[in-house]
Design brief:
24 helices; single chain; fatty acid metabolism; ligase; globular; 725 residues; 29 strands; GMP Synthetase, Chain A, domain 3; eight-stranded mixed beta sheet; alpha/beta; Rossmann fold; nine-stranded mixed beta sheet; 36% helix
Length: 725
């Protein structure tokens, strides 16, 4: 389909029309062109509608929209439970038939099943070259080659040898091995080797601050840490403060570098390639396989309010979430997955393992080499996505928001005519997709370059980790021409709770309960969220099922506070507020900890407002601050430097003190918020401009780039107090 019925060209946009007589003539000509496109496209639609109707089967989308996706159960006075209606797939049945209960058993099963097929791929980095930039600076770029693949058989052999090598080093069942390494094939191989030995993996983000790394290693008393040449410097810095650390396993850097002798005090340094070479069988203690309830991973949350908490995930938890994830969509034998998100996050780990269950090969990448425009890709070289051409990928809102802003800024630079026409054709495409059709002509013309940004073959994308704004969701899935599924889950629920269906065209919702997972809404009287609310029941979300974690490591009181068991089901109190619509789909509407009650009794949800304002062109990042004794909120804003330069020639330090510039930025933020349905009380009345970048190293954001409100408030306490006084 090419056009949309019922959408008038340029409707309601005359207020944007240029004022000069020449521009008015151009604007009138543009309107004439759009009207012509509108008429021609409608004639095209009427002529080819029957063909498209039988090709796209739009009734499947309508059937989905009219059906119910969760079963309601009213067993409790102050709570209501929703059960999944998802049917098991063939792979779910296969897991049951083979009695797969641990990650070790899953890995052994898929290795035998897929044998010589490609499994894990790593792209060659042939060398590094200095590349001069237009501004006179010189950056080091990679010269990239092709992907090299390990088969399932080769991965199985490498896992076996590494597992034997770990046991020879005394790292067997009951020990804990920390991994501080970038996402790569060896990360997955090392984790599976630990699972084979029933050793617990302690996951650490590579951008986690030194204090967080020290806390995790010391709290878990990890006997060994796995790192690469790129992260070993962090281990050298923290080693004096980690008395339990005995062994460091060192991997080569992905880029060609010489392996110098690394000295780490009394710690024994073992090279990864030495483990792969194998050890004599008489030096290897016997292996003790894991059981379903054994702890497989201690995964440290990002720690937005203090020290990160270690969440204990059992093999049973991981398999329960895998069972749910492998039937969120239809997977095909020719699919391929691109892995670039941190494996220290359980969602990425499960996404990769779930792909392997279907025999889907995984190509590894990084943010620095993902696309043709990535920072480390040499001019003339293709990014990883354009070489691998994946069909499946996961993303996070931060990446999608950058794509959103890039598209919006590009259209604005093209001028008002291109911007208006692009917006109009966007509406065309969205309307037809809402009705179950597609727009192949637009896909191959207007959206072709944007599609090829990620290789051109992506057919399914899953976003998780944080809320995704409606504008970002709509624009990215329309321009990339791919169903964008929104997932909801926490580390404590092994990343699983709900996922939207590819046929769901709404935004702002997070899907129905996944297979084997229960969603409970519980009355929260203080916030006035009740299951008796109309038109939809509302309350605090509790997630129940075998995916719910064992608890927090060495935090029994906190575990008892957030976890509980009832009628044989383990539950986790998420602290999120949700409502379940008539079709059984969940929507997150608030968060208990993110709510502030203002002077006149109005509630403002920090998370909701920030997720909207983050997509404002002038905003790079934002943090709301409130005071219950006042009737308004303040925003600490990290501005987008490119956009700021287009507003004023002044430097950022000068802008911080310039009331006129602050007023202009505030007005732009407020206007954007109003256009995105934020209430007056939700809009910041004043702003504080931040000068320094918000990075995990600065302590302003977590390793997962979630804002750390307390730290930001403390840093800008003087400016905030001055405004409120």
């Amino acid at each position: 389909m090419m056009a949309t019925q019922g959408v008038a060209p340029m409707e309601g946009r005359d207020e944007k029309a240029p004022k000069g007589w020449l521009d008015k003539c151009k604007y009138a000509l543009l309107k004439l062109v759009v009207v012509m496109i509108y008429v021609v496209s409608h004639l095209y639609d009427y002529a080819f509608y029957p063909v498209y109707f039988f090709y796209y089967h739009p009734w499947r989308v309508r059937r989905y929209q009219k059906s119910t996706h969760a079963r309601r159960e009213d067993l409790e006075r102050e709570a209501v439970i929703f059960h999944s209606l998802t049917e098991p797939t063939q792979v779910n049945q296969e897991m049951l038939d083979h009695g797969l209960q641990t990650m070790e058993q899953v890995f052994n099963h898929i290795s035998k099943k897929y044998g010589s097929q490609d499994c894990l791929g790593t792209r060659q980095i042939l060398g590094e070259e200095e590349e001069p930039q237009p501004n006179g600076k010189t950056f080091v770029k990679y010269v990239l080659g092709r992907y090299e693949w390990r088969s399932f058989n080769q991965v199985e052999e490498e896992v076996r040898r590494v597992a034997d090598g770990l046991r020879a080093q005394g790292l067997h069942h009951g020990t804990r091995v920390a991994i501080l390494c970038e996402t790569r094939a060896e990360w997955m191989i090392m984790a599976n080797a630990c699972f084979q030995n029933n050793a617990t993996v302690v996951t650490l983000y590579t951008n986690l601050g030194n204090d967080g790394v020290i806390h995790a290693i010391n709290e878990t008393e990890a006997a060994a840490v796995v790192c690469s040449q790129d992260t070993v410097s962090k281990i050298q810095e923290i080693l004096p403060k980690c008395p339990h650390l005995q062994t460091v396993i060192l991997m080569k850097a992905l880029a060609p570098k010489s392996m110098h002798n690394v000295k780490l005090g009394a710690c024994k340094v073992v090279r990864y390639h030495e483990l792969v070479q194998g050890v004599p069988s008489d030096h290897v203690p016997p292996r003790k396989p894991p059981q379903a309830n054994d702890c497989a991973i201690i995964m440290y949350t990002s720690g937005s309010t203090g020290n990160p908490k270690g969440v204990m995930l059992s093999h049973k938890n991981l398999l329960s979430s895998m069972t749910a994830l492998i039937n969120i969509a239809q997977f095909r034998p020719g699919d391929r997955y691109i892995a670039y998100l941190p494996l220290a996050h359980v969602l990425e780990l499960l996404a990769e393992t779930s792909c392997l269950m279907y025999g889907i090969k995984i190509g590894y990448s990084s943010a620095a080499t993902l696309t043709n425009k990535s920072t480390k890709v040499k001019a003339g070289c293709k990014g990883d996505a354009n070489v691998l051409r994946p069909t499946l990928m996961c993303s996070v809102p931060m990446v999608l928001e950058r794509i959103y802003k890039s598209i919006v800024d590009t259209m604005k630079r093209q001028g008002w005519a291109a911007e208006e026409l692009f917006e109009y054709l966007m509406q065309y495409k969205m309307k037809w997709e809402d009705r179950g059709f597609d727009t192949p002509l637009l896909n191959k013309t207007l959206f072709r370059k944007i599609r090829y940004f990620l290789g051109g073959r992506v057919r399914l994308m899953l976003s998780g980790g944080a809320p995704l704004s409606s504008d970002t969701h709509n624009l990215t899935r329309t321009c990339i021409c791919v169903p964008l599924m929104q997932g909801y889950g926490l580390t404590e629920t092994t990343a699983c709770a709900t996922v939207t269906n590819p046929k769901d065209r709404t935004t702002g919702r997070v899907g129905a309960p996944l297979m084997g997972i229960k969603i409970k809404l519980v009355n929260w009287d203080e916030g006035n969220y009740l299951i008796s609310d109309e038109p939809h029941p509302r309350g605090e979300i509790h997630v129940g099922g075998d995916n719910v974690a064992l608890g927090y490591f060495k935090m029994e009181e906190k575990t008892n506070e957030d976890f509980y068991e009832k009628n044989g089901v383990r539950w986790f109190k998420t602290g999120d507020i949700g409502e379940v619509h008539a079709d059984g789909v969940l929507k997150i509407i608030d968060r208990k900890k993110d709510l502030i009650k203002l002077q006149h009794g109005e509630y403002v949800s920090y998370g909701k407002v920030e997720s909207v304002l983050k997509t404002c062109p002038i905003v790079e990042n934002i943090c709301l601050v409130g005071d219950s004794s006042k009737d308004y909120v303040i925003a600490v804003v990290l501005p987008d430097k490119t956009k700021l330069n287009s507003i004023t020639p002044k430097s950022l330090p000068e802008c911080v003190q310039d009331e006129k510039v602050l007023a202009q930025i505030l007005k732009e933020i407020q206007t954007f918020g109003k256009s995105n349905d934020l209430n007056k009380v939700e809009l910041p009345a004043k702003i504080v401009l931040a000068q320094d970048e918000w990075t995990p190293e600065s302590g302003m954001v977590t390793a997962a780039f979630k804002i750390r409100r307390r730290q930001i408030t403390q840093k800008y306490e003087k400016e905030i107090s001055k405004i409120y006084k």
